[in-house]
Amino acid sequence: MLPYFLLMLLCLFLGYLWKRTGSNRIIQIWLELFLLVLLFLLIGFKYDVGTDSPNYLRHYLDMSYSYYMYGDMTLRTPEVSHSYLNYLSAVIDGGTLFVYICYGAIISFFTLRAASNLSLNPFYFLIVNLPFHIVMLAVSGVRQGAAESIVVFAVSLLLLKRTKYFALLILFATTFHSSALVFLVLVFINSKTRYMVLALLLTLPIMLYFSLNEYGHYIESNLYNQGIFLRVGFLILNVMIIIRFRKQWEQLPYNSVIRFNWFIIFSVPLLIGIALLSTTMADRLSYYFILLSSIPALALISKQRSSFEFIIRNSLFFVSFTSVAIFGYFGNNGPNYFYDSYLYRWVVDGEFPEIDSSYKIRGG
User: Using an 8 Å Cβ cutoff, are 359 and 94 in contact?
Assistant: First the structure.
């Protein structure tokens, strides 16, 4: 888990530099580019990390088998983008490494671009979201990590009144993970509340279908469900910050920020209610709401006087740091999240690790 802790400490230092150079946008851009490359390398070159790693290897090998034996592809709907990435990797014999490199580029770009769009400190944004968005998803459940990154980018455009491509981005995110479809309801954020509620009621049955059929195997294994309480607890912390500074909501330079904040606040009872139907579905959605709730939480924290901002922000960082420690050292699947990298093994072992190849499938 050491690389995650070092990344958080580095982001703490660089985030301070980014904040202090507020009047020099050129320096900020270089700092952001450095973070983009670092995050891309962390995700794109991960080596057998996360509980989902065997599943992604199976997806790739199944696609390779279909391609080399039948000249066809196994299309997974509605998550067709994931299927096409595996198909492309099978064609070029890139293994899961190529798939992860593509996901690393998608997650890094859309996540950091969302923070940049909203004028949030990207380093602080990453620290707060590192436990769930990066450790749990980007280096494990990369499909949902990609979907979540696209959703937060789409929401950043929505909050800036650049709504032209919002629906298309949400549908694009759904092609990586069906859970993203729920956030299509935000199309109605500027409409009457009953339209949002109606859209949500129409979307939830679709999500329930996928949670029971596509991801039903997680329910009995308790692979992800065991952390739902920790995730909802983290979400509640962000929600408490949003409620505490509710008088300053209108000071945020975002479109429909009041409705968006209430949407985040009511996500807590919504997740509790959904958990009664499907803990898997509630678990999947909790990741999105944690990431989205950090937008108004960090924006409101930045509005406070210097000493108060320092205390609240670093308290949130401490909780984030503690969450990573809990995953690694106290979670049932903690050892699966210990980071390893193709690049690290290349440097230490003196040779690049063998890539998961479809060569044997072709009879080589």
Answer: no
Least confident of 77-86, 90-99, 214-223: 214-223
Give yes or no for residue 114 having a pLDDT over 50: yes
Q: Is the dihedral of CA 141, 145, 151, 155 positive or negative?
A: positive
* Length of the chain measured in residues: 364
**pLDDT tens digit string along 19-30?**
988 778 899 999
* Exposure string over 186-203, b if 16+ CB within 10 A, otherwise e: bbbbeeeeeebeebbeee
Query: What is the reported pLDDT for 208?
Result: 62
Highest mean pLDDT among 207-216, 219-228, 304-313: 304-313
Burial category of 20 from C-beta neighbours within 10 Å (exposed 0-12, middle 13-18, buried 19 and up): exposed
Q: In angstroms, rounded to a whole number, what is the distance separating the alpha carbons of residues 22 and 122?
A: 13
- Is the pTM higher than 0.90? The answer reads no
Confidence of residue 283 (pLDDT cuts 50, 70, 90): confident
Cβ neighbours around 72 below 10 Å, total = 10
Element (H, E) at 291: helix 279-301
Q: Report whether 154 contacts 118 (CB < 8 A).
A: no
What local confidence, expressed as pLDDT, does residue 219 receive? 38
Number of neighbours of residue 306 by Cβ within 10 angstroms: 7
- Cα–Cα distance, 73 to 350 (Å, whole number): 36
Q: Taking the CA of residue 167 as centre, how many other CA atoms within 13 Å lie in the half-sphere pointing to its CB?
A: 5
Amino acid present at 15: G
Q: Which two tokens stand for residue 182?
A: 């729920």
The DSSP line for 132-168 is: IIIIIIITT-HHHHHHHHHHHHHHHHHHTT--TTHHH
How many other β-carbons are positioned within 10 Å of the β-carbon of residue 184?
21
By the 10 Å C-beta count (0-12 exposed, 13-18 middle, 19+ buried), 88 is classed as middle
